[in-house]
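Posting this for the archive.
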Amino acid sequence: MNPGDDDELLVIRSAIQAIRSPLAQRYSPWVTPDGYSPQAKLEDALCRSKQVLYRGGNRTGKTLGCSAVVTGFASRQLTRLHVPEPVRVWISSVSFEDGVGGMVWPVMRQFVPDSVKAKATWWRKRGPEVPRYLPWPDGSSIEFKSAEQGRDKFQGAGLHLCWVDEEHPEDVVEEIRMRLLDSDGWLLVSATPVRREPWLKEYEREAETITIRASTLQAAEAGVLSKEAVERRFANLSERQRQIRIEGDYGSFEGLVFKEFDRRIHGLRVGSGHLVNDDGRKVAPWPIPHHWRKFSGIDFGTGVPTAVLVAAQDPESRRLVVFRMLYSAEIRISKWAQLILDLVPPLDAPPWCDHDRAERLELEGQGIATTPAKKDVTAGLEEVESMLEVRRDGLPGIMFLLDETLQTHPVLGRLDCEMLAWELERYHYPKRKGKGPDPARDLPVKKDDHACDALRYLIMGLRRDVTGTEGDDLGARLIFD
């Protein structure tokens, strides 16, 4: 030992002691009136197992609880855990922008000492902060990762603990688990199972995994959330979405995708100067007024049908009325451009369409601007389901013109939404094969879905148009609030 080493060691130990204030001084887990506290169970679960899953509904404190215990692990404030010195910790979110910068770090930074933050490195320091690496005085560290980096960026390092925040691709999780082998480290997963990743169920079934459950309603009972606000926010969810979003349950993924769709509820026909529903109730003027905002979604096809949907938004109720649909196969994109120019009225936003570059360039060459669609299937299905729900005024959030008496087109035939209704009634999930993960990854069968895809593109595009962000989990429902 060189002269001065003892003094340096004393300085390091003093710095470590200074930052090891008990978590309880900064963090109070929520507790229901009957004494249930999922956040309080986290430290105990990590003491009993190397595999922990915090599965809960939205706004149940998953980020807060996991941030506290993971920071406590890195600074060894979790005195019941016997961890080596120093430790290497990863926190992986779905994305840097929304996950790390938008969710994890704003919550976690309260548990990180100023002396550690002062020596941090950053993916982005300003607007908002996205940390990269937090070094502790004794050599321990927390490094921030993102699933969007891909599997390769998770290779090579040995870890003591990794917190996986929300559902990641399965190959990324597999790589993380390899990194934990050498140290026999901890894997902490927190998730609301929205993305339907089959590996999450398998992880929960493993004998070593301790699962902690949390409900949004329980958080409201504990006083963390307003019960009225929770009920209002989730009032328009389908039963399957309520299972996922409130209880953190795995939704059922067999049978029809859009069980809520019913021609008698969602269909409209032309009456005297109005579009009316099955009960004769006037829903919208006909023809659709010029001042109503109009939007479109397009799914390209050649050997399979191309579908072009046009919807208008009622400025008072904010309801969507899909009043025109162009649908046919075996038509070249140059011909589609002319059909769209002839049959689609002026729009308030460029059509949202799939990413086929050649088709989009052809349309834009004909003067039809387009916007690439947001193609997240899971999020899109949730938004469509939500809009199919009946609202407070007794009508659903989206309705479709279904009237065989309307004039037809010589090339396309019917211009109403009959083929969309036909697809909505048949769009289904694959049947399960055994109890393991489904090879189709719990996504609908890719058959007779072109109009459904165009509808999903339109609604997800409108979600961004209305909210100004892709991060709001209320999505398109906001247009009806």
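The mean pLDDT is 85. The chain has two domains: 17-245, 256-480.
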